[in-house]
Design brief:
- By secondary structure, the protein is α/β, with parallel strands linked by helices.
- Helices cover about 35% and strands about 20% of the residues.
- It is built from 15 helices and 20 strands.
- Strands 7, 8, 9, 10, 11, 14, 15, 16 and 18 form a nine-stranded mixed β-sheet that branches.
Length: about 500
């Protein structure tokens, strides 16, 4: 879909629909709404006064003003209560507008960046523009590669035009729109990776997708370790998880350097279980097909590197993606096995369905060779985190206060909010093993916490945060700009954090 940014008059838009936004209970018309109302004999004002449109959040009403073009249709779009307005509501409202119009087979729409009305001084042109464009693009996302019947009936949007009346603001609005396109493109890329069926997204295919992405961006370098190289490196925990599958594991390394001379290396780690049956500790059959999404952390990290390169962020990133399937088989690892991890620490396997923390243990230990200024891992790690926080919040655990604060701020800015859970030493006793250094589960209680505590044993003394995205990574019901299924959560969070990371510029 094309994003157009221009200045000019309403009469010059040339779009099928012009979008006007309203707050709930807003009195009187101003700006573009007043101008259009005067052009079309008070039809907008009449619609509001007679109660046909109130401005409730996500409310849409399509008006055919009549008369001659340039405006064939006007869409009234509700933003809800003004006191509650924020960028997240703006994203959601424009996503709903685009979805509604696509549903009635309209392919183009136009809107103003109504800076004064929306925020006064609260948000900048850039923030408002990014929110609108992200909302439209992410709201229109569809995963259709495997739809073969009636492909011609799949509805696609063609163009969204943003009009900025003041030419002096045009460069800022245009730049922000392009940045939003790149971010939304990365999120959609992550959604595509997660949505793909497991037979079409094996560890090898995931590695190929990462390499292909890197090859199209000169500042990203890709390396993929195979089984032999992983064995030589000492990734025995990762290899143990992989033994039950005929699909060979991979360890993907992506390196992005925005500028030379950066002192800090940021390491991102993404869990890449491309299908999780639970191994010998087999999961229930119901909804097991959704376990193709157990590589959502890997997808988010790969997509974040892509976005960082596309935005030319002045940061140095190393992304580590341990990728494998977790299946039962004649060679599968067993409950009771003891594994020696890359760090040298030994792990007693209590459940083969606690496999994600095993492959992450090796990846986190591997991260230490880069002497990172920060390590952030993303993983669909525990059902316990979903029980605790539902499908809304990301569980956050970490060893560095400043890093946690930065990520929390990024979560608020993007709507991908995090909620911190404790990593007190009291929980360490729950993962100590009688026959090894640690065991890979700490029992029924505090499951998300004990999983994070396990990971902390392998992150070294570097600033580290673990983000458990098990809840919001795969949705049973869609949200305004997030579809049912793969959400792409974590990409926008990471990019917001990286854009504001102190000491990297």
């Amino acid at each position: 879909m094309e994003i157009v940014v221009k200045s000019g008059k309403i009469s010059e838009t040339g779009s099928e629909v012009f979008v006007l936004t309203f707050f709930d209970g807003e009195e009187g018309l101003s700006g573009a709404a007043k101008h259009l109302d005067e052009m079309y004999a008070g039809r907008i004002d009449r619609m509001i006064r007679e109660g046909d449109f109130q401005g409730r959040l996500h409310q849409v009403s399509l008006l055919y003003p009549g008369g001659e073009p340039p405006i064939r249709r006007i869409l009234l779009l509700g933003l809800g209560e003004k006191k509650a307005f924020d960028l997240e509501r703006l994203r959601g409202a424009f996503a709903k507008a685009a979805q509604y119009l696509r549903g009635i087979n309209i392919k183009t729409m136009t809107s103003f960046v109504d800076f004064k009305k929306w925020s006064g001084e609260r948000f900048s042109f850039e923030e408002l523009t990014e929110a609108i464009v992200e909302g439209v693009l992410l709201g229109l996302y569809q995963f259709t590669p495997f739809k073969t019947l009636e492909r011609d009936k799949i509805k696609e949007f063609e163009a969204f035009t943003l009009v900025e009346e003041q030419k002096k603001n045009l460069p800022a609005v245009r730049k922000a729109a392009r940045q939003a396109e790149r971010i939304a493109g990365a999120v959609s890329f992550a959604r595509d990776l997660v949505s793909a069926p497991a037979n079409e997204m094996t560890p090898g295919i995931l590695a190929d997708k990462a390499v292909e992405m890197a090859m199209s961006r000169p500042r990203i370098k890709a390396e993929v370790l195979d089984e032999r190289q992983m064995e030589e490196a000492g990734m025995h925990a990762h290899l143990a998880v992989a033994r039950g599958s005929h699909e060979p594991p991979r360890f993907i390394i992506l390196t992005y350097k925005g500028v030379e001379g950066l002192k800090e290396t940021i390491v991102l780690v993404g869990k890449g279980i491309t299908f999780d049956s639970g191994g010998i500790s087999l999961k229930p059959a119901e909804n097991m097909g959704e376990m193709k999404s157990d590589m959502a952390g890997a997808a988010a990290v790969i997509a974040a590197v892509r976005a960082a390169a596309d935005l030319e962020l002045p940061v140095h990133i190393v992304a580590l993606i341990p990728a494998t399937e977790n299946l039962p088989g004649g060679r599968a690892y067993r409950p009771g096995d003891v594994l020696t991890s890359l760090s040298g620490k030994t792990i007693e396997v209590i459940s083969t369905d606690a496999e994600g923390r095993l492959i992450l243990a090796d990846a986190l230990a591997y991260a230490g060779r880069y002497q990172p200024g920060a390590i952030v891992d993303l993983a669909t790690l525990t059902g316990a985190c979903v029980v605790a926080l539902g499908k809304v919040a990301i569980g956050m655990f970490g060893t560095d206060f400043a890093l946690k604060k930065e990520l929390a701020a990024a979560g608020e800015a993007t709507g991908e909010r995090v909620w911190e859970l404790p990593l007190w030493d009291d929980y360490l006793e729950l993962i100590k093993s009688d026959i090894a250094d640690y065991k890979n589960t700490g029992g029924r209680y505090g499951g998300a916490i004990t999983a994070a505590m396990f990971l902390s044993r392998f992150a070294g003394d570097y600033p580290w945060v673990h983000l458990d995205i098990a809840g919001p990574a795969w949705l049973d019901k869609g949200r305004p700009y997030v579809p049912k299924g793969a959400s792409g959560v974590g990409v926008r969070l990471l990019i917001s954090w990286l854009r504001n990371r102190k000491g990297t510029r």
